[in-house]
Amino acid sequence: MKLLRLNVMLIIATTIIIMSCGPGKTGDNNDVLSYITSRATELNTSAELDKIVEKAGDKRLKLLGEASHGTHEYYVWRDSICRRLISEKGFSFIAVEGDWASLYELNRYVKDMEGAADSAKEVLENLDRWPEWMWGNEEVAGLIEWLREYNKDLNFEDKVGFYGKDVYDEWNSMASLNDFLEEHDGELLEEVKALYDCFAQYGEDSGEYARAVAQEQPNCSDEVSAVVELMRDSRDRFEDVSDYEYFYAKQNALVVKYAEEFYRNSAISRGPEGWNSRVEYMFLTVNRLLDKYGDDSKGIVWAHNTHVGDARATEMTGRGQVNIGQLAREDLGRENVFITGFGTYTGTVKAGSQWEGPRQKMNVPEAPDGSYEYLFNHIEYDNFILVFDENDRQHEGLKEERGHRAIGVVYNPAREVPGNYVMTVLTERYDAFIFLNETQALNPL
Fold it and tell me: Is residue 207 helix, strand or coil?
């Protein structure tokens, strides 16, 4: 029973498939359709992003969502928004829902740091943690090459960075920290290795570790916390190391600490603790990047809609779940955060039918009656933008809670309703929404 509970919790936390009770109400939508049509801006080219760029341009954080991890158009339009925010509004970095150690090699590349790869594709083709297609795709490669070119003539401290902010790939972070210490401080390396030896019996299998914790075996939380403290307090031992490399090493220690917390919480609780510990780490990483880039810095965050759209405007809050959008608004103030969600009515997507299963090109069925996606399919534009204001939030038809599609890395189109719809008040969840009537699967390398 404990093993079954753990497997269910891990799948829920990692695939972002949030169960709901249905896509929403049906009925006469003529009034709300008329209102939305009057507020929508047709989207065909980057020029139509003006309103989003202007509204988001002075915010501390710009959060960009996606309704799946495998849709070409979500990546392309986020890319377009990023290029404009960086080149026109001076944004400092992009932090994505990916692994810290692996994706840091993209940061080395875009900044032309020592040891950088020869191309974005070289880095992306070496990614080996499922789902590889989520970052190892042509769409991301194009953005990375643009970033490198944009950074080419800038001073190092002005170069735009690209980072992963997720807790996964903890074994790679552990190895990267050990490699760093082996090069710079053998004595500290032995202390850290002795602490990480707590995990030795699990053979780099976090699932095995979590199952042991669920069976009330000793956990490693004290040990991973001790490594974080050692790294935090040891700056004077690395006089020959740049601040950027030291920051990278400390962050690897934090990945291991929060990954342990995530797996432990997922193992022992049916509640939201596993989800929330992962979210808290992601938001901590974004804040650390803002601090690293300075008081005037501005950051862009890429993550699933379920992470960036304020959880308080969804059924998630009833389960005690928080997300980056909620934490950002609470911590920085709503006036300093701009959140854009994405959605589609139908099309194709890249996903797996089970965890760690082969990627497939799947059909996305037409959205069901009562959902936002069904409603927006009746707008005259195939693709459009909504930027919300207080009038939108007071409109009776938009204050109504409806289902909003959320496809994870694991997906079964035949079981989409109700499992892939999150009950949502859209105007409170986001500051803007981009609707794309028909979308296509992204293009893995």
Answer: helix
